[in-house]
Every structure is written in structure tokens, then in C-alpha cells.
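Possible regression after last week's pipeline update?

I re-ran a chain I had predicted before the update to compare outputs. Posting the input and the new output here so someone can diff against the archived version. Not blocking, just want to make sure nothing changed silently.
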Amino acid sequence: MQTSPHAQDQDLSGLTPEEVTLQAVQEHAGQKGNLLPILHTIQDRLACIPESVVPVLVEQLALSRAEIHGVISFYAHFRTQPHATHTLEICRAEACQARGGLELTAHARRRLNCDFHENSDDGQYTLEPVYCLGLCAQSPAVMLDGVPHARVTPEKLDALLRSQEAQS
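New output (post-update):
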């Protein structure tokens, strides 16, 4: 997990998500439009924005649950659960879609039993969309744990995942 400079400056061990949230609110107190920086700080420190912190934000910021959920759900960057051990990103750009990307996406969803921005049931994979890996001439493309793979078929994806599982 990559942490922000904020997390490196403090010992967060033993703090509940709610306490981490209160710290984030205090750090950004007085800032206009501080909800986004607060959410970034929470996610940097906890790897996600757990549902349990929303009531704290409602109380501290005098915003409604709907306003806070609206921001969390609008920005794809924000997650309500931590990423799994491995991240599989599937290119959703036009070139990849035109050359089998839609079928590849459907296969990955079935294989992992999850949708985009979700974790597989076994907690091993997070499935994420990406909007161009720069491999348009070799599409469809995926990135598994930061390593790009080109001309990926459902069979090749299965082989990649089996290989990853064998290494784990």
C-alpha cells in the first residue's frame, strides 16, 4: 500500500477508522471545500473510506450522508473497501473494445465473480477499468499488478491469473 506523506509522519497503529477521520477533519479544518482533501487523507491512511466513517463526517462537517456518499461514489479514485492483493486493470478504450475488450471484460467479471471497483470473492483480485494503456495496436490489453499485457484473450487472461496464483 502506498501511503501519503501524512501517514508517514504519524503512528496510526491502534487508531480506529473513526479516530483517523477525526484527525483528518482537524488537519483540514477551516479550509473551504475541505471534503475532498479529508477523503483523500482518510483513504491514504486507511487504504479506503469505510462506511463507518461517514457518520463522523456528517457530524463534523454538517453535511448530509447523501452529499458525502455522492462525492465518494462520483470519484472513481475513492474506494469503500481496500484493494485486494492483486490489481487487474482492463483497458476500456475504443481500440481495445473493438478488438475483443468487451468479451474479455465479461470473461474477467465471470472468472473473478466481481465487477469493476470490486474485489474477487477470494480477496485476491481487484478489477479496475483503465482508459488506455498505450497498446492500441496490440489490443485488447490488460495490466496485472502494474505489468502490461497485450493481445489478451480470455484464455490468455486465465493463464496470466493461474501464473499469478502459482507465484503467490
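Follow-up from reviewer: compared with the archived run. The CA atoms of residues 11 and 21 lie 14 Å apart. Marking as no regression found.
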